[in-house]
Amino acid sequence: MSTVRLTIRQIKYENKAFWRNPAAVFFTFIFPLVFLVIFNVLFGSDPLELPEGVTHLSTFYVPGIAALSVVSASYTNVAMRISFSRDQGVLKRIKGSPLPSVSFVIARIVHSTGISMLLVLIVVSAGILVYNVDPPTNTIPALIVTLLVGSAAFSALGFAITVIVPNVDAAPAVVNASILPVLFISDVFIPMQSAPSWLTIFAQIFPVYHFSAALQAGFNPFETGLGFELDHLLVMGIWLLVGIIVTVRFFSWEPRR
Amino acid sequence: MTDFAIRVKGLSKSYGQQTVVNDITFDVRRGEVFALLGPNGAGKTTTVEILEGHRKRDKGNVEVLGYDPINAEKQFREQIGIVLQGTGVEPQLKVGETVEMFRGYYPDPFPLEEVLDVVGLTSERNKLVRQLSGGQQRRLDVGVALAGNPQLLFLDEPTTGFDPSARRDAWDMISNLRLMGRTVVLTTHYMDEAEHLADHIALMSKGSILSYGTVAEIIARQSGTVLGFKLEDAKTVLPKNFSDAATIKGNKVTMRTNAPIPLLYNLTSWALDNDQNLDDLRVEKPTLEDVYLDIVRSSTEKDAKL
Ligand SMILES: Nc1ncnc2c1ncn2[C@@H]1O[C@H](COP(=O)(O)OP(=O)(O)O)[C@@H](O)[C@H]1O
Ligand SMILES: [Mg+2]
After folding, report:
1. B239: alpha, beta or left, given left = phi > 0 and alpha = psi -120 to 50?
2. CB-ligand 1 contact for B46 (6 Å cutoff)
3. Closest residue CA from atom 5 of ligand 1
4. pTM confidence score
């Protein structure tokens, strides 16, 4: 079988295994919805009069929640599952089979990208239906591209971070310590208007800021163009490459002893 | 096609200061069952993982099915099956799905039903992997290794932790593979397993192969005679010149000697003087067990001196 067909087949098995764990599925999907409800309780979804026109406040926090969903479904989820599979010897098993390594890696990235997209679709739909989010229109292609590049980059980085995860017991600590601070300084939860400029500049090194900014642009109801944010996409693309290169170069199929 | 599935020459591997595999040489013929027999820490797993391409060697030549395993990828992997210590499969897939998934990686796989039948998991086909017992998971491991219809199978301690009947089943399965013309390399620390299954055995300890051949050849190579007997009371103290030569396990004593007549003379006179019965007294060529225990003993003695 060709590498492409093997990869597609592998995605199917990844998907089967994913849906088999009801608790994991439930919490993966409920997580962003919980955030949506909390933000609505905190900030409401009232109409908002801006110089450009009228929109609703919810339109501004839904992109942040979408960014959070993608980061947790791609980065966190990939890193945790890989660490677990590695400790269980599942990865070594695969490595000893003729399945090309690239098929296995791509299959996991594609699968978590798909789950991320589904999550965003659910959050945005719930936002539109329940919380008056203004649906994007002309920016839909740009949004899809942003979500695809972002999910792929965070999935690849999820693989890459396992390089410094020695075993599954250390995984939650390493994964959280590497992503939560970045989320906090990247304008996802907390508005950064009052932050010192060095911190904002520092945050711009990492992909979360750019992902969040590109999503904000995509959900901007007053955007009249296509809404492609090339500079943000470029930084995300670079991080995607970094994730792939680190994975190819340093990835370990066995836990460290 | 050569007659050999595996050729190993001068293979060495160290971790830091510790030499784990020390200049070993052996061949495995096509269609035979070959056993690496040795105590824990002998270097068996390291050796087979080098043959599988899982680890890099430091020195030596290794040829497996004509490939150098460290460079070989797809075509090589399509012809081998691997059961390692401590590997697993995705816990959230069903038994049948797991075997099916692996079958798809190979050009000419075994039929699914046959794989399940060989490893005795036909009725577990629709169970999730995580619901299997330990023994069943181990059998699934073997099933996964068989799925691709491999020419050559590596089984690292395939029966460790099995109860006697599961072990018998595993033995039957391995014998069947041999009948089907497959080459099997297994590691074990059970000498009865090696003796029962293997055409050729390499006795390994402390990274070196101390003896290689059929069971008969290994024994014939050992010089000397074995004297064995049972003490009525395990606490009985043997005279010093006996206890130096003896291996004592509970109340079982075995002695190796190149001069059996004086030893027997001294032993029986000591027994007469001390009212010892010397139950089950035997004087014979060493068995594989004797040879194996000798090797384990001499390597632990070396440890004690260090
Ligand atoms: N990755 C490793 N790093 C360091 N030491 C190792 C490693 N793998 C094995 N060893 C050491 O090598 C020796 C032989 O191990 P192994 O090949 O597993 O023996 P066996 O399979 O015969 O029990 C042991 O002392 C073990 O601790
Ligand atoms: Mg071992």
Report:
1. beta
2. yes
3. B15
4. 0.86
